[in-house]
């Protein structure tokens, strides 16, 4: 199956839809720590065990929150699968012809976005910051989703499931 060709506008929006920003972290994190987070984001990857160890050494980080970030990373496929299952159960025809996630490449992009949103959440947890998003990047993400006619109700439902897993892991670790 060939991939549909993306328009120039969509390609531009993808480049601008960087939803993570570490700009406000300069008051709480040394540049070396921010570079670790930024490097992972630039590469579109989760923080590695080595990254997390370095962050702990550079910043007097809450070990429990680093462990939560690591645990979410280690369970990413399970968490995304749960979100996908919930979306498909709630919207059973969404991947069928006429559905918002048809053809399969649209559904795959949705599940991949779940993976990336969870990745971004783990940065905030590991960095002990709730302000890890870029208002400008989120604006471009919104424009991108509008342009691509992404079914937002399904995306929101999946993200609610992902964030519920994140809260569960965070609160579970706090009770240890």
Determine the oligomeric state from the structure.
Answer: single chain
Characterize the biggest β-sheet: none
Percentage of helical residues? 55-70%
Provide a count of the helices: 8
Task: Give, in order, the helices and strands.
Answer: HHHHHHHH
- Beta-strand content bin: under 5%
Compute the separation of the termini in Å. 48 Å
Number of strands: 0
Radius of gyration: 17 Å
The class by helix and strand makeup works out as mainly alpha
Summarize the structure.
67% of the residues lie in helices and 0% in strands.
What can you see in these coordinates?
By secondary structure, this protein is mainly alpha-helical. The chain is built from eight helices and no strands.
Kindly list the characteristics that best describe this protein.
0% strand; 67% helix; 176 residues; mainly alpha
Task: Summarize the helices and strands and which ones pair or pack.
Blueprint: H1 8-16, H2 31-42, H3 49-58, H4 63-74, H5 76-90, H6 104-126, H7 135-148, H8 152-174
Helix pairs in contact: 1-7, 2-3, 4-6, 4-8, 5-6, 5-8, 6-8
